[in-house]
Design goal:
alpha+beta, 2 helices, 4 strands, 23% helix
Length: 111
């Protein structure tokens, strides 16, 4: 068995489209499992909802307004005891443009 390089890799994904986010999450989980790593998750995190209210008319009619909202969906993945093969496979992975990926590595000595 290959030597583990870190204790854990935490991947946090964000996207406006939940279907795109779920597709990316399943790709990452499949790739990590094929490389021999143990995966915890995906854990759905709370969705952030931002509302924006704008005037419909540029001049008068202050009471006439329109509301827009944008939702940010988030998922969390933990890859436990990853090997160098796992890291190489994940780095070659090509994810869609609408998904923001944040990666943190926790090393063996760190708490």
């Amino acid at each position: 068995m290959a030597q583990s390089i870190t204790k854990r890799i935490r991947i946090r994904l964000k996207a406006y489209d939940h279907r795109l986010l779920d597709q990316s999450t399943s790709e990452i989980v499949e790739t990590a499992r094929r490389a021999g790593a143990q995966v915890a998750g995906p854990i759905p995190l709370p969705t952030v909802r931002n509302s924006y209210t704008v005037n419909r008319s540029p001049h008068v009619d202050k009471k006439s307004r329109e509301q827009f909202e944008i939702r940010t969906h988030k998922r969390l993945l933990d890859i436990l005891e990853p090997t160098q093969d796992t890291v190489d496979a994940l780095s070659r992975l090509d994810l869609p443009a609408g998904v923001d990926v944040e990666i943190k590595a926790y090393h063996k000595g760190a708490k």
